[in-house]
Amino acid sequence: MIPSALSRPAVAADLPFLSAEPLDLVGLLAKSHHPEAGAVVLFSGEVRDNDPQTDVDYLEYEAQEAMASKLIRQILDDACEKFPLKIALAQHRVGKVGISESAVVVITASPHRAEAYSANRYIIDRIKHEAPIWKCEYFKNGTKEWGGNCNCQKITGDANKHVYEWTEDKK
Amino acid sequence: MTIQVFAVLKDYFDKEFEIAGDLKNIAALKQELAVQNPQAANVLDLCRFAVHDEFVDPDYPITTNDTICIIPPSSGG
User: Fold this and answer.
1) Single pTM value for the model
2) What is the CATH classification number for the domain harbouring A59?
3) Does the complex come out with an ipTM higher than 0.90?
4) C-beta atoms of B76 and A92 within 8 A
5) How much of chain A exceeds pLDDT 70, in percent?
């Protein structure tokens, strides 16, 4: 019998947490079915052109890859301890990512939907705040801007403490 | 010691460079970098430092053989 702790790594173990290639949302979803999971949630964080004035051409993501991969694994492990997940996986793009492409995907599967939604928010929230991954916006006029930093340090006074969207009461 | 910087810090420093001198800990390194490049001081204040891919505190002792990563606040997703 496979120990339950292995049910997530059974999916995630062979999946790199960072990818220089486009994320295969359909392929990942196809791997995310589980006989004991009645709910599967897929979140895709996609590149948007949020500033029509400046016209975003594309984004480029950079990571401290060893640390980012280790941290995403840790976040998935934490999520599996916190929620009754059958499957949890996450993958983040590095390199050039175009408008409407997926920059990050998180898939959670659990017996019921409440946990699948909550766990998914928990995972994406922590990845965005904690993972050493950065985006740079490249504009059509040839300029660029490193953007959207986690600013929690200004509120909490501690680089390791964040203000999350996900909170326990939304569990 | 070897310093690796990421993201916005590459606007202020080479991606990877050597730094010499008697720097006993992370805090001293941070101060030295801010002296070398005062425009980067505010950004450096928001960064965390990592040695051997682990975050370390300002009083963490560093040696000439270390590779130190300077990690700005995250902006993934």
Assistant:
1) 0.88
2) 3.90.1170.40
3) yes
4) yes
5) 87
